[in-house]
Amino acid sequence: MSVTLHTTHGDLKVELFCEAVPKTAENFLALCACGAYNNTPFHRLIPGFMIQGGDIFLGPAASQSQESIKPMLPFDDIPKGGTSINHPAALNQEIHLPALRHNTRGILSMAARPVKNRTTPGSQGATGSTINGSQFFITFAAAPHLDGTSTVFGKVLNLTAQDEGGDVLTRLETANVNIDKKGRVVQPKEGEMEFEALRINTVTIHANPLAK
User: Fold this and answer.
1) Which CATH class is domain 2-207?
2) Do 51 and 172 form a contact (C-beta atoms < 8 A)?
3) Does an H or E element contain 102, and which?
């Protein structure tokens, strides 16, 4: 199974490891299918490390009635930072070492968040100290320090420099964006021309990882 992220800087096709991490892949695909990722920003960019997005709280779905996505997201409000389709239950980590590691450029992985209270919505039923939600990141280089802490669930296809995937990832990494001291991307306001916007416009789901 694969999806194409149609970004402001081109299309990224990513293969999902559905058999290895079924719950994580199901969550990502459901959020893609219901449009929750549409028009959401890449809100963190650290060249040489990773780009992070998927905060559905920052997308238009959070400010709408959500009638169109309620079959996938059966809750009233999207919490700050986003959440998984399991909400208010937790989406637990699916760590598989040494098979799935942050060992190269183009790895797709979940941005885990700490569990502070196992009774709060989004954390109910958590089995570990961290859980997954809707946010994810793509590596620009190997990041072995994340092995065992974040769930790897896919990889960018066509990653060599002359191929589309590698070229788009490079364009994202080198985008002319306004980044604050914490690595957060400050999205330009309408009419501002000095910096580029960095976001996911839409997502296409493919049954075949090699589908055109």
Assistant:
1) mainly beta
2) yes
3) none
Q: How far apart are CA 29 and CA 54, in angstroms?
A: 12
Say if residues 169 and 192 touch (Cβ distance below 8 Å).
Answer: no
Concatenate the DSSP letters of all residues of 23-89 into one string. HHHHHHHHHHHTTTTTTEE--EEETTTEEEE--GGGSGGGGS--TTTTTTS-SS-PPTT---TTTTB
Per-residue pLDDT of the chain (212 residues; tens, 9 = 90+): 899 999 999 999 999 999 999 999 999 999 999 889 999 999 999 999 999 999 999 887 766 545 555 445 666 678 889 999 999 899 999 999 999 999 999 999 999 999 988 888 889 989 989 999 999 999 999 999 999 999 999 999 987 766 666 789 999 999 999 988 877 999 998 888 889 999 999 999 997 554 55
Retrieve residue 181's tokens: 């001291």
User: Nearest 5 degrees, angle CA 179-CA 180-CA 182?
Assistant: 110
The residue ranges of every structural domain in the chain are 2-207
In the structure encoding, which two tokens stand for residue 18, read together? 């559905």
Task: Please check whether residue 90 is in contact with residue 106, taking contact to mean a CB–CB distance below 8 angstroms.
Answer: no
